Recover the amino acids of this structure.
């Protein structure tokens, strides 16, 4: 038998204090527990303290201001998907959050836990990369803000230091109003992580010329990945079939997938191209 | 080290029981409290057999350490039955309405929404949660919502019919 304590500080200062003074193998941050739960059950992590964030004031907030949308780390994916504020400002984020796993996962999983978990096949990293998201990390030492692509370091690895909490995700207002889409390809059950997921956001002017583009892919590299070469292939011209194909070919050469139960590396590479092409062609045909 | 004493509310009753800190709610309910209506399948949040209601939301009890459940309101299918039978006097807000639970129960029986029954408690919770949120859900939404509750027996057709029937009955009652 092992004692396991669940502590729920009420303020961020208290939570950060607690984290700063602890051994990372003994004290583990608990968001919704949907990623940690299976690890705990199998004894792959053996903490003595779970630091629950659910009572920390402010981490559940969701606010829309002139500079963009801020989502507290403790906002649950179910709430993100239902929020009228998110649906209004970033419908793609709401929609993608509503497709993660199953209803029980979404009821428990938090946005902070989702990103901190950093499984390369997760859905929201490519979506948030396509929306220029930044994450806020706080510790007793101070606060820093990182673009999501610098936060995601490798499979289950992030730039978060042991004493830091991810407290907020910020999507700048510049990302509002773009044409956006995300497709997840799940050849196994619909509640599985996707084999590959492709997200894109485009700003197209009145003449049909693409002025801004973001293309990001999940499941096909050690982290979710933005593909600048694909974006460059789209910007500055009309969204013709050829341009979409060029961009998709760039994605195919940028990804770095591996074989696993969701598919072979070769298959994932090809699917990353196919799905990019489809996403872009869908966006191109949007009025 | 013997287990710590955990206190929580199960089906409206305060419960105190010894538990290993690293024990999970699914095992706690079944083995310490004898509430075996909640089943245990995959243990990783996929199958839905262990579905319970906790503080207003459905969760997989296989992923909730008892330490995390301490102090919370947990409802199992046994509590749902008590609710349907009118034996619960002050149900916490957010539990499905007793009439809805009765309609779902009837529909599962009449539409052959179950065979072996191992998935049924979870299915019933899911259907009650869905119809509480949206009394007349489009079929696509039903399928998407129930994708998280696996059934190896029915092929889902009976379950889908049960949702349809319960939804019709419930929408009629819910209408002003
Ligand atoms: C059955 C099932 C199906 C799934 N399907 C999908 C799917 O289709 N698509 C998909 O994308 N994902 C899927 N997932 C994964 C799911 O998205 C993640 O488990 C979830 O988002 C993690 O969030 P959480 O709050 O539960 O994290 P937790 O389990 O609480 O934490 C995850 C990690 O992050 C750390 N952490 C948590 N919060 C913070 C914080 N604020 N600051 C710093 N560190 C923190 C924890 O210490 C831990 O290391 C699935 C999971 C399950 C169980
Ligand atoms: S046993 Fe909990 S979801 Fe399968
Ligand atoms: S009735 Fe047997 S698994 Fe669903």
């Amino acid at each position: 038998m092992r004692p396991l304590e669940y502590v729920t500080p009420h303020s961020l200062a208290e939570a950060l204090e607690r984290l700063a003074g602890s051994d990372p193998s003994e004290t583990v941050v608990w968001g919704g527990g949907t990623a940690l739960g299976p690890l705990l059950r199998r004894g792959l992590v053996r903490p003595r303290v779970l630091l629950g964030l659910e009572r920390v004031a402010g981490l559940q907030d969701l606010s829309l201001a002139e500079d963009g949308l801020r989502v507290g780390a403790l906002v649950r994916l179910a709430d993100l998907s239902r929020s009228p504020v998110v649906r209004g400002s970033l419908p793609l984020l709401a929609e993608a959050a509503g497709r993660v796993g199953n209803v029980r996962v979404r009821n428990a999983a938090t946005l902070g836990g989702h990103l901190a978990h950093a499984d390369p096949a997760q859905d929201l990293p490519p979506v948030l990369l396509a929306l220029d998201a930044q994450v806020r990390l706080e510790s007793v030492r101070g606060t820093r803000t990182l673009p999501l692509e610098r936060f995601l370091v490798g499979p289950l690895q992030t730039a978060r230091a042991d004493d830091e909490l991810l407290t907020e995700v910020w999507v700048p207002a510049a990302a509002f109003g773009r044409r956006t889409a995300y497709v997840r390809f799940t050849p196994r059950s619909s509640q599985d992580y996707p084999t590959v997921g492709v997200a894109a956001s485009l700003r197209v002017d009145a003449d049909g010329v693409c002025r801004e583009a973001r293309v990001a892919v999940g499941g096909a590299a050690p982290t979710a990945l933005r593909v600048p070469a694909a974006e460059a292939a789209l910007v500055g011209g009309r969204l013709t079939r050829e341009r979409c194909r060029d961009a998709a070919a760039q994605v195919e050469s940028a990804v770095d997938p591996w074989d696993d139960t969701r598919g072979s590396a070769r298959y994932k590479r090809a699917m990353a191209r196919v799905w990019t092409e489809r996403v872009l062609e869908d966006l191109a045909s949007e009025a | 080290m013997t287990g710590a004493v955990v206190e929580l509310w199960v089906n409206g009753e305060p419960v105190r029981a010894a538990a290993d800190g690293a024990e999970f709610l699914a095992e706690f309910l079944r083995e310490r409290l004898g509430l075996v209506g909640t089943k245990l399948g995959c243990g990783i949040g996929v199958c839905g057999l262990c579905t319970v209601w906790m503080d207003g939301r459905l969760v997989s009890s296989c992923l909730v350490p008892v330490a995390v459940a301490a102090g919370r309101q947990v409802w199992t299918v046994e509590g749902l039955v008590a609710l349907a039978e009118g034996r619960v006097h002050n149900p916490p807000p957010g539990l499905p309405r007793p009439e809805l639970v009765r309609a779902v129960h009837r529909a599962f029986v009449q539409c052959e929404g179950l065979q072996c029954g191992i998935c049924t408690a979870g299915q019933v919770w899911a259907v009650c949660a869905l119809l509480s949120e949206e009394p007349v859900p489009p079929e696509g939404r039903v399928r998407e919502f129930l994708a998280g509750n696996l059934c190896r027996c029915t092929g889902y057709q009976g379950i889908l019919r049960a949702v349809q029937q319960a939804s019709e009955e419930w929408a009629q009652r819910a209408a002003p």
